[in-house]
């Protein structure tokens, strides 16, 4: 994650996922990324630094929150399954990328076989 603002890079990384669709169901202030109609990332578009909410395995979610002050329970989401990451640069880029990949993978794993096949064809 090198170019532009960290938030712009997160948006680019989410949009680059296979089958990802950017949507604005909650208004212009939040970009929601979905695969097969299911959310895997919500990016706040308000004042910098911004934040991204990502789906997460519950045990890993707690571990990440303990490790980074910038990671908190999901804002307006199921706090057991979602984390919100303040994009202040304190979470290493590679770890943030892993969190995006993990969120996407969790959602794809819950899709039907037919939906998963559609993503790869």
UniProtKB/TrEMBL annotation:
Q: Which UniProt keywords apply?
A: DNA-binding
Protein name per Swiss-Prot or TrEMBL = MmcQ/YjbR family DNA-binding protein
A UniProt-annotated Pfam family: YjbR
Q: Is DNA-binding given among the entry's keywords?
A: yes
What InterPro entries does the record point to? YjbR (IPR007351), YjbR-like_sf (IPR038056), YjbR/MT2646/Rv2570-like (IPR058532)
Organism of origin: Actinomadura montaniterrae
Q: Which molecular-function annotation in GO is an example for this chain? A: DNA binding
- The reply on keyword DNA-binding is yes
